[in-house]
Specification:
about 400 residues; alpha/beta; 5-stranded mixed beta sheet; 10 strands; about 20% strand; binds 5'-O-[(R)-(carboxyoxy)(hydroxy)phosphoryl]adenosine; binds zinc ion
Amino acid sequence: MDTNDTKARDSAPVLSAEKAAGRAAGSAAARILGIESSCDETAAAIVVDGREILSSVVASQVDIHRRYGGVVPELASREHLRQIVPVVREALVQAGVALTDVSAIAVTRGPGLVGSLLVGMTYGKVLAMALGKPLIPVNHLEGHVHAVLLEAHAAGREPRFPAICLIVSGGHTILYRVMAEPSVAPMESRGDGHPPAHAFRYARIGGTRDDAAGEAYDKVAKMLALGYPGGPIIDQLAEFGDPTRVAFGETKIRGNAHDFSFSGIKTAVFYYLRKRAEFQPEIATRGEALGRGEKSAKALRPLCSPATLDLIASFQRAVVGDLVKRTMAAAEEFKSRAVLVSGGVAANRELREKFEEAANRARIEVYFPSRALSTDNAAMIAAAAYPRFLAGESADAMLNAEANLPLA
Ligand code: KG4
Ligand code: ZN
């Protein structure tokens, strides 16, 4: 099985084996099986009471999509079909939980690629019906919010609401206000003994008008022949360049100041490279190295001139600066008590650093998921389902995937 779950296991706040065994056996705990297949990651997880991760398995398809420099929807659904059964089985085995002991099945309903969503959702539906368990549909974006809360709980922290949440990934760059509803106590039908949990309300206050930030990372990496996905490699190489060398200027947004735009900086990098023929030979050399499978930062760094490293560092500084500035401005405008940052780009080291600095200055607390929970995973889906489980929510067999499902 081509299951790359190491990143999830390395740093996700997975419970100790003893505690996990106790939780798995305990009758009052809600053991939710989460299934996520909205894009190019097939994932399954078991989360107890919306807080404790017993297992989180992620099978990444990145090796399949790499040669195309982006996700190919048809290939993604085919791969989900291959992976979904072994990934769910692996999540159960790692958690030490039998399928019959699962309390509910949570599935990502959208947004995402419809063919991909359908695979996880259909499998979840079939399991729920066969087992007679509730089927809980989850918005993928709400999952990203819960990825932050999972990490906060693991660290014994509790964000204060209302908060501002930035979801920043390859597909999204959106700002929400997040309001906590009074605690949801368990419905009678769900039995006593489950700890209460907050449900949340969301208001969308801004978002990208063109590319998502992660998409800009991926496209710039493609222009520079740095491989796919671009975020992690640019993150690692940026520290070797001078971020003040290339001035990209501030992104100007007319109208809603909480909106973003990243196509301008992507185009600026394109013209910067087109005007300077000296970049071409090293781009060709890196392309050959990638062709030989040499894709790590360690392998590519010696193939980058100082001018390329400066360009990479300057690009990252501009994107990070813009994300931090607009998010913090929203937090101050709405008098938020916390900032939550989630999605693949939230794994970025400079982004975390700059957010910490800005939040310290503004005396606002900032929260991130662990790096493993920043990118798509199913633990966040199972966690987001918990308040809905308590409230007695359950979908029937008519449930459908929604490619553009909004959160607010
Ligand atoms: O959340 P995610 O796994 O999937 C989507 O829903 O898109 O995010 C993937 C995106 C890719 O664009 C990738 O380049 C970016 O997140 N990314 C990063 C980093 N790690 C992943 N961007 C910047 N720095 C990183 N360390
Ligand atoms: Zn995502």
